[in-house]
């Protein structure tokens, strides 16, 4: 379960995947509301809770939620910018039972990182990383890759090693929310993407077994789609700050999809019975070429939200697939990125 505790955040990253309509989520769940959701999640069979946002450290009840999750036997992972981390709070989170931390870095170069975040944040993030490791918490460094930082992919891996991280996740931008709005600014060219693959291989060779280096490839390049949530409504659910529950982070944008709420409904009923979770379950909803594709139960037709964003039809084959009749919508974007001498202007959240 992905628990989006708040969409409040001190940063203004141009690739933020939070919704554009942030005002809709100002009425956040109370502590009791989240505790009830955690109890119901365990009853549903949830094993892991990823505490994210926005910036989850802005929730004053974070240790209370972690403590309840621990008492329920749930694995907890905190996804954070680290910016609001006060002295001693990392130790408090560890004592409450936090299992793991994912800390975001925007770039290996401080000035460029701060330009992306819209705030002088990089040095504070490095300090937060040390607080987390000093508290004995396993640490993953997250870096979102785009045309502005791909050249320093190897430096990001080196920095993660220097910070004592156990793992670094180098993930190409997923184009939802603000990232979709800024895609002309963020999208890399084909040559950059191919070079990134070489740089990842070099970083793995350079660091050996000292750190796990995970590379989430750019699915707009190569003609192969990512599996949509490993199956829509099959393995995970997302609870938004106001209690909305959906199968994926970006699904609220899909037309005709009624959004259930954990404020008024039980999680189990939402999971098993709601139209939102059943809309794209299985394969019966698929159109051609997905319907007859031998990979239909492997890639699940790709991303429903990406299909909608490019084509206006959430049931269409993901245009990132080379077999999609709309594949040119993705490849045209790559051609534009290849030919652009400078990135487009940015729009901050």
From TrEMBL:
InterPro entries from the UniProt entry: 4Fe4S-binding_SPASM_dom, Aldolase_TIM, Elp3/MiaA/NifB-like_rSAM, MoaA_NifB_PqqE_Fe-S-bd_CS, PQQ_synth_PqqE_bac, PqqE-like, Radical_SAM_PqqE_MftC-like, rSAM
MF terms in GO: 4 iron, 4 sulfur cluster binding; cyclase activity; iron ion binding; oxidoreductase activity; S-adenosyl-L-methionine binding
Residues reported in the UniProt entry to bind [4Fe-4S] cluster: 9, 13, 16
Function, in words: Catalyzes the cross-linking of a glutamate residue and a tyrosine residue in the PqqA protein as part of the biosynthesis of pyrroloquinoline quinone (PQQ).
Assigned keywords, A-Z: 4Fe-4S, Iron, Iron-sulfur, Metal-binding, Oxidoreductase, PQQ biosynthesis, S-adenosyl-L-methionine
GO BP annotations, alphabetical order: molybdopterin cofactor biosynthetic process; pyrroloquinoline quinone biosynthetic process
Cofactor requirements of the protein: [4Fe-4S] cluster
Stored CDD domains: Radical_SAM (cd01335)
Protein name according to UniProt: PqqA peptide cyclase
UniProt family annotation: Belongs to the radical SAM superfamily. PqqE family.
Iron-sulfur among keywords: yes
Domain Radical SAM core residues, every copy: 1-210
Metabolic or biological pathway, per its Swiss-Prot or TrEMBL entry: Cofactor biosynthesis; pyrroloquinoline quinone biosynthesis
Assembly, per entry: Interacts with PqqD. The interaction is necessary for activity of PqqE.
Cofactor note: Binds 1 [4Fe-4S] cluster. The cluster is coordinated with 3 cysteines and an exchangeable S-adenosyl-L-methionine.
EC number of the protein: 1.21.98.4
Reactions that this protein is recorded to catalyse: [PQQ precursor protein] + S-adenosyl-L-methionine = E-Y cross-linked-[PQQ precursor protein] + 5'-deoxyadenosine + L-methionine + H(+)
